[in-house]
């Protein structure tokens, strides 16, 4: 629900409107533009609040046809949010390229990966220390040691680090090392985890669940923002469909729809969508063409030896050549890759 106040509305009347909303057990977000003041109601308002707001002094209109995720929606926040991660800004003209291995495997592997992706045009390094694997017998990640190695890779390469978090109790530990907390597809609806990263001080990359709707993804993001963390990026990483020709189906339509519905930056993961390295560049291009603010892509110095997702990992050369092909596309779309 949004209450629209005229620009001339006296301060005392404005304050009375805010008090009315807060007395109903809701929170407010206030946005001003040249003509009016929009007061967004955050929470679960009682049935009579719209009527009482309409009757309040200074209120021009009350809209109840608003999205159920008011903090994430573009309605009260028309400009795309800029998320600053050290020297990198996501959501502006510049496209963000995040690259690195699926898993952190060893010191030499993550340092070589960081060097390779930095040379190939990445602005951030990815690498999983905690891996949510389909089988309990698959490599589960180096955990705390992996975080330590990521910090070394950041120190050597200067690239901020994106790494996955799988449990609320790990937030403090992962925040000591990571620049961005990744929530994986399997945890998109782990609401305790969403609230926990919502209380953290680090930006979050929230991946869409493999069977989640766009609406469910936006609600999941609302959990994080409503818990206090506004620095959220969404990630389309492919969904389950009847097709088996690729690992998942990259939902480019979702990218365009997300860009319309939310002010949060949208990142595309062509690696988990394709599952096969030879199709990763095409899906990266499709994602960017659909309006994505960046990509997150798997790169391994020796993909055939990777402990996870080797088949979809680009070689360092493959990564560089993909980024070189993305540059003219970005320019044609009014974007840039540094
Ligand atoms: C990953 O990024 O390595 C990963 C596990 O991705 P997703 O959660 O999208 O499957
Ligand atoms: Mn992976």
Question: Residue share in helices?
Answer: 25-40%
CATH superfamily of the largest domain: Aldolase class I
Order of helices and strands: EHEEHEEEEHEHEHEHEHEHEHHEH
The strands making up the biggest β-sheet line up spatially as 7-8-9-10-11-12-13-14
Radius of gyration of CA atoms, rounded to a whole number: 21 Å
Largest sheet: 8 strands, parallel, barrel
Give a structural overview:
The chain has helices at residues 11-23, 49-55, 107-120, 144-157, 171-177, 191-198, 214-226, 252-261, 270-274, 280-289, 316-332; strands at 2-6, 27-32, 36-42, 59-63, 83-85, 88-90, 96-100, 124-126, 161-164, 180-183, 204-207, 232-236, 266-268, 294-298. The protein has 338 residues and is α/β, with parallel strands linked by helices. The protein folds into 2 domains: 2-63, Alpha-Beta Plaits (2-Layer Sandwich), CATH 3.30.70; 83-332, Alpha-Beta Barrel (TIM Barrel), CATH 3.20.20.70. The protein has an 8-stranded parallel beta barrel with strand order 7-8-9-10-11-12-13-14, surrounded by 7 helices. Strand 9 (161-164), helix 5 (171-177) and strand 10 form a beta-alpha-beta unit. The longest helix has 17 residues, at 316-332. It is elongated. The structure holds phosphoenolpyruvate and manganese (II) ion. Phosphoenolpyruvate (PEP) is lined by residues 102, 128, 184-186, 207, 237, 269, 272.
């Amino acid at each position: 629900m949004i209450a629209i106040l005229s620009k001339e509305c006296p301060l005392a009347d404005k304050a009375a409107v805010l008090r009315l909303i807060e007395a109903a057990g809701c929170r407010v977000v206030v946005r001003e533009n040249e003509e009016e003041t929009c007061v967004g109601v955050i929470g679960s308002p009682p049935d009579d609040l719209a009527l009482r707001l309409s009757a309040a002094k200074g209120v021009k209109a009350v809209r109840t046809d608003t999205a159920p995720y008011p903090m994430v929606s573009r309605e009260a926040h028309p400009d795309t949010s800029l998320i600053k991660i050290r020297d990198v800004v996501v959501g502006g003209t510049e496209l963000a390229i995040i690259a690195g291995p699926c898993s952190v495997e060893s010191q030499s592997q993550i340092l070589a990966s960081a060097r390779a992706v930095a040379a190939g045009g990445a602005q951030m390094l990815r690498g999983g220390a905690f891996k949510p694997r389909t089988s309990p017998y698959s490599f589960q990640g180096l955990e705390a040691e992996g975080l330590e190695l990521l910090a070394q890779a950041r120190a050597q390469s200067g690239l901020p680090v994106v790494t996955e978090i799988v449990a609320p109790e790990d937030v403090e530990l992962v925040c000591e090392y990571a620049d961005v907390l990744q929530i994986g597809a399997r945890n998109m609806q782990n609401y305790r985890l969403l609230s926990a990263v919502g209380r953290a001080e680090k930006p979050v990359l929230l991946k869409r669940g493999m069977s989640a709707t766009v609406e469910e993804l936006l609600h999941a993001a609302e959990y994080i923002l409503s818990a206090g963390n506004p620095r959220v990026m969404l990630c389309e990483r492919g969904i389950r469909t009847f097709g088996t020709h690729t690992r998942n189906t990259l939902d480019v339509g979702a990218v365009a729809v997300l860009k319309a519905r939310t002010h949060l930056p949208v990142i595309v993961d062509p690696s988990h969508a394709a599952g096969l390295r030879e199709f990763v560049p095409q899906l990266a291009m499709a994602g960017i063409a659909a309006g994505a603010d960046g990509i997150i892509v798997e790169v391994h110095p020796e993909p055939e030896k990777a402990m996870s997702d080797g088949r979809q990992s680009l070689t360092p050369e493959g990564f560089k050549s993909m980024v070189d092909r993305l540059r003219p596309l970005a320019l044609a779309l009014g974007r840039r890759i540094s």
